[in-house]
Design a protein that fits this description.
heterodimer, A: 157 residues, Immunoglobulin-like, 17% helix, B: 217 residues, alpha+beta, Glutaredoxin, 2 domains, seven-stranded mixed sheet, 44% helix, elongated
Chain lengths: 157, 217
C-alpha cells in the first residue's frame, strides 16, 4: 500500500516538475513589468529595451526569444564593464531561477531592438512577445520613453 | 694658548660653513615639503598630474563636415567621450548624463565643450553624427571622418577599441573605452572620469581637476 502511494506520488510529482501545462495553466505564470524602450535620435537603428521579469514558480525558467512586429530582430545583451572597457555580450538565453526576478536595466542586461519599422518617439507603444522554454509566450506593451538619467539620490534632496 | 687660537681660526670658518649648509638644507627641505604638499593635491580622482598628456595635431571632421583639430580644443575645457551610434545602452546613457551635467556646468562658465568621438566612423557618417549629438544637446560636437583620421586622435589618447567581429555582418559591435577624457584649455589631457557616470560625479571630478590645474598656472 505504501509502495503504491509512493509510486502515485512519484508520478504526480514528476508531472508537476516536467509538465509544461501544469506550469502555464496554473497561477504561477511568469510576469513582466515596467517594460520600456528608450527613445533615441531618429536616425539610430538600434534601441534598448528594459523590463523586470519575475518567475514566481518553484523551478527555473528560461527566456529563449523575443519577437515584435515593430522591429526586424531582437536580441538579449548585457553591457559589461571590464577595466574601463565597455563591451556588449550577446546572451543566447536568459535564465530566471525559481521565485526570482531578473531586471533588464540600463548598463546591464537589456534587449537590443534592431531597425524599428517606424521612427519611435516618447509616448509611443510597442508590443513585445517573450518566448519561454516551456513554450509559454508572454505578450506585453512597452512604452517608449526618453531616458531619465537624474541621479535618484540627487532627486530626493 | 697659541694652540687654542690656532684651533679657533679653523673652528670659526668651519662653523660658518656648517651653518650655511644647515640653513640651505633647511631651505631645501622646506621647499621639497611645499612641493610635496602640492603633489598631495594630485590625489584628486582621475587627475593626470604631474604628467598630463600632451596632444599633438590631429585631423578629423566635426558633425558639420568641418575640419577639427588641436586648435578647436584651445581656450575651452573639453569633455571627450568615445562611442558609436549602434550602441543602444551605455553610449546614450553616458550622453544623457553628460547632457545633464553640461546644463548645470554651462551656467557657471561658458568655456566648455562636449565631444562625442565615433569609434565606428564607417557607419557613423557625418550626417548621422549631426543628428546623434544634437539629440542630446544642440551644443555637443560629434567627431568622425574615416578610420585613418580617427586614429590620428585615438592613438594619441590611448583609447582602446576594437570591432567585435564575432558576427561579421552589418550588426557588428564595438568594444570601447567607457571613460570621459578631460582636456584643459591648452589642449592637454589632464584627467579622465571613469565609469559608471553620474551627473554629480562628473561635476565633482571636473570641478576638482579644473581648480587644481588653475592653481598650477
Amino acid at each position: 500500500m505504501n509502495k503504491v502511494n509512493l509510486f502515485l506520488f512519484a508520478i504526480f510529482f514528476s508531472q508537476m516538475l516536467f509538465s509544461s501545462s501544469a506550469f502555464t495553466d496554473g497561477n504561477v505564470k511568469v510576469s513582466i513589468s515596467d517594460a520600456w524602450v528608450s527613445e533615441a535620435p531618429t536616425n539610430v537603428s538600434v534601441l534598448a529595451g528594459y523590463a523586470n521579469i519575475h518567475n514566481p514558480s518553484n523551478k527555473l525558467i528560461t527566456l529563449i526569444a523575443i519577437s515584435s512586429q515593430n522591429f526586424s530582430k531582437i536580441e538579449i545583451h548585457r553591457s559589461v564593464l571590464n577595466r574601463e572597457i565597455i563591451s556588449m555580450e550577446k546572451q543566447e538565453s536568459l535564465e530566471i531561477s525559481a521565485e526570482n526576478t531578473i531586471k533588464l536595466s540600463p548598463g546591464d542586461f537589456h534587449l537590443m531592438l534592431f531597425e524599428p519599422n517606424k521612427p519611435l518617439r516618447s509616448g509611443d507603444t510597442v508590443t513585445l512577445n517573450f518566448l519561454f522554454s516551456d513554450g509559454h509566450i508572454e505578450t506585453i506593451e512597452a512604452k517608449v520613453k526618453r531616458r531619465d538619467t537624474e541621479d535618484h539620490s540627487h532627486q530626493n534632496h | 694658548m697659541l694652540n687654542k687660537l690656532n684651533k679657533n681660526t679653523f673652528l670659526i670658518p668651519a662653523i660658518i660653513i656648517l651653518a650655511t649648509l644647515a640653513i640651505s638644507a633647511g631651505f631645501y627641505i622646506s621647499l621639497k615639503q611645499a612641493q610635496q604638499s602640492k603633489q598631495a593635491n594630485s590625489n584628486i580622482e582621475g587627475l593626470f598630474w604631474p604628467n598630463p598628456k600632451i596632444i599633438n595635431e590631429f585631423s578629423v571632421l566635426d558633425q558639420d563636415g568641418n575640419n577639427f583639430g588641436l586648435n578647436q580644443m584651445k581656450e575651452k575645457w573639453s569633455f571627450m567621450f568615445f562611442g558609436y551610434s549602434h550602441c543602444p545602452d551605455v553610449c546614450p546613457i553616458t550622453m544623457s548624463v553628460m547632457a545633464n551635467a553640461y546644463k548645470e556646468l554651462i551656467g557657471e562658465s561658458n568655456n566648455l565643450q562636449v565631444i562625442f568621438a565615433s569609434v565606428d566612423p564607417n557607419r557613423d557618417t557625418i550626417e548621422k553624427l549631426f543628428q546623434y549629438v544634437r539629440y542630446f544637446n544642440p551644443d555637443f560636437i560629434g567627431l568622425g571622418g574615416d578610420n585613418q583620421m580617427m586614429s590620428s586622435l585615438t592613438s594619441q589618447i590611448g583609447v582602446a577599441y576594437y570591432i567585435n567581429s564575432e558576427n561579421k555582418n552589418k550588426d557588428y559591435l564595438v568594444d570601447h573605452s567607457a571613460s570621459i577624457f578631460l582636456f584643459d584649455p591648452v589642449g592637454r589631457m589632464v584627467g579622465k572620469i571613469s565609469p559608471p557616470h553620474t551627473q554629480n560625479k562628473i561635476i565633482q571630478q571636473f570641478t576638482n581637476i579644473k581648480n587644481f590645474i588653475n592653481e598650477q598656472s
